[in-house]
Amino acid sequence: MESFETHEHDVLVIGAGGAGLRATIEAAAQGVSVGLVCKSLLGKAHTVMAEGGVAAAMGNVDRQDNWQVHFRDTMLGGKMLNNWRMAQLHAQQAPDRVHELEHWGALFDRTPDGNILQRAFGGHTYKRLAHVGDRTGLEMIRTLQDRAVQLSVPVYMECTLTHLFKAGDRVCGALAYWREQGRFVLFLAKAVILATGGVGKAFRITSNSWEYTSDGLGMAYHLGAQLMDMEFVQFHPTGMVWPPGVKGILVTEAVRGEGGRLTNNKGERFMERYDPKRMELSTRDQVARAIYTEVKEGRGSEHGGVYLSVTHLDGEAIKKKLPSMYHQFKDLADVDITKAPMEVGPTTHYMMGGLRVDAETTSTTVPGLYAAGEVAAGLHGANRLGGNSLSDLLVFGRLAGLHAAQFAKQNKEKPKVGDDAVQQATREMLEPFERTSGPSPYDIHEELQDTMQNLAGIMRIEEDLKKALEKIQDLRSKLRSVRVTGSRLYNPGWHLAYDLRNLLNTSEAIARSALARQESRGAHTRLDYPKTDPEWGKWNHVISKDGGQMKISKSPLPQMPEELAKLFEETH
Amino acid sequence: MAEVTFRVSQGTAEQSEEKSYRVPVATGMVVLDAIHYIQSHFAPDLAVRWNCKAAKCGSCSAEVNGKPRLMCKTRLDDFAAGEDIVVYPLKTFPRIKDLVTNVSWNFQVNKKITPCSPPKDATWTMYQEDMDRVQEFRKCIECFLCQDVCHVLRNHDKQNEFAGPRFFVRVASLEMHPLDTASRISYLKHEAGIGLCNITKCCTEVCPEDIHITDNAIIPLKERVVDEFYDPLSRLFKIFSGK
Questions:
Q1: Beta strands in A285-438 (DSSP E)
Q2: Cβ-defined contact of B75 to A332 (cutoff 8 Å)
Q3: Which ipTM value was assigned to this complex?
Q4: Chain B partners of A105 at a C-beta cutoff of 8 Å?
């Protein structure tokens, strides 16, 4: 029998990025007991890497801005596949959430009259992104983490969640292990909030860290929650392409927001051919496809990207507005961006799809289980606008904390998890140590990354997607015999072996949804169905567990009320 | 392909040894790339912390050829051809395993610092020129390299009476916040032990964010402590006013 420690909270929050921290703060403010669990040290979650800014229609720079325009931009950017109510709540509540950060100590860059400065970004009609140079995410996560610490919330750091448990139809707890010691922890909770982010690590070229293995999606799927819009993976147009070790590292859209220009090897500003009106500030899906096409047709840069240049702008202003980009290129690529162009190309960046949630409460289809941030689907539709992620974390993080706390208050019953379920889960975790032969988790991971990158990436075709699905099944059988060496003490090979279970599951959901959607829309591009089909615009794909099989079905898009539909009349 | 010899300190607090690996070198490669190569080819259980790989999260701190560095920012071509690259965990913190140390003490220190305390009726008008100096402190990525190199912690183990440069930077960011109303001066003197710092600037030298820790944070805070506790005029004022 495997021993384990037990902790009990009314609300358990999984993930300490922007959404998890904001949810924690809100739930604690509601007076319930909250526990926050995270895989890394506090303050290292992916939010810390967000650069460009947080979108909120405050109208500090462009007075005409308001929530209706932000709502319309978000829906148009998402190719109308978004959940309209989420997009509305997001646009309406984002300004308050940004001001709140300021009240907790965040220091955003200022306008000359002392308000929060806002910058231009792709797909946003007006200058809308509150920012701190190009380290907005750091400012945000530090502010939220200090607030959570101030509220004395217990934080379980370097602790990885592996299984969620149900009592009847309701969530009741979760199993985790301490990364340090490899010992197990059982959490009992009346409500659980997933804020576990996306799945970038399924792809070879990505801006995402090791943490992005879709743990939340995997655990919730196995518990019976539904996934939605899984075909929509955002490939950010500008990742570094050279040198090899930095391939995929993000180059913020703020470079273009501040006036950066994209050119090919002929010196042409090629965006003129793809989106002459918005040029470099077109939406991410369009810019990524444009760069891909330029490279494919032989007009790429030396190392297989295109050029992004700010050399026509004032060098000192660049160092002030884009300091981390300046240092990143100088230190890692020997390029002084004030004097020479950057080389950039698409990199896997963000998952628009995720857990299907209720717009008002962020509840998943499993009672007591909530989801906020990248792990949830709906807000961004088929393509996310830059800056809408940080605001998403704040708006829906808060709603998740609020509603999970209310759910916990209404359900007085003490949560319990059966010993058998815990023992079965721990056995599953420890099996790879018992094998004397079998493939290495690192090899399986590399094969998966190549599969997803080459067969389910930025340009898709039926034949490739079918091959990807076969390959995923093949890797799944390999994973059943994966072997881990060493002890349970801080063992990254063991950690990866478990992560692969979720990565494979989510990869299958991506490939299945991509195969089924026979059109091109937003971030999902099918070479064999290059047109956007209005008929497909009426449906979301929903994935659920059906026995041992993954089931995919179509669900009609919720209808927008008349007064919101009117906002699109002049643009359609 | 050229190769370089890596010597990595592996083991636990009780028992450790240097292990050697030959790693092929690619253009622009950094130490963290080599550690990942070692993980996937030779030592699958090699423990290391990392996240962003772009010097934004401060996770992959280690001591490379004796210097506290971020491994994601330390390029192999910074070293002489044929030179071994030797990687050790941060010395100031207890080792858990391989390159991973227990840095939890830092999170305990942070809890004691009075948070940002703006007035209830603040209008929130703040000007850039008032924020520039505070924004420098807000750049801190909590890599704890400054804590690692500081001799008060590294050589004298004063963890119980000294907060370390990271938290002087944090206190400076709060004390110099344009709208903050709290005072952390007594904390600095009595609990954070700022007097123990003798401004050798080691912390400033290792800061990957180029924060002028000593000049812009620690020295101004030391001056505030002196003004509060040692200024003869204000002491007289305190005696007579009874404050």
A1: 306-309, 342-351, 354-355, 369-371
A2: yes
A3: 0.95
A4: 115-116, 174, 177
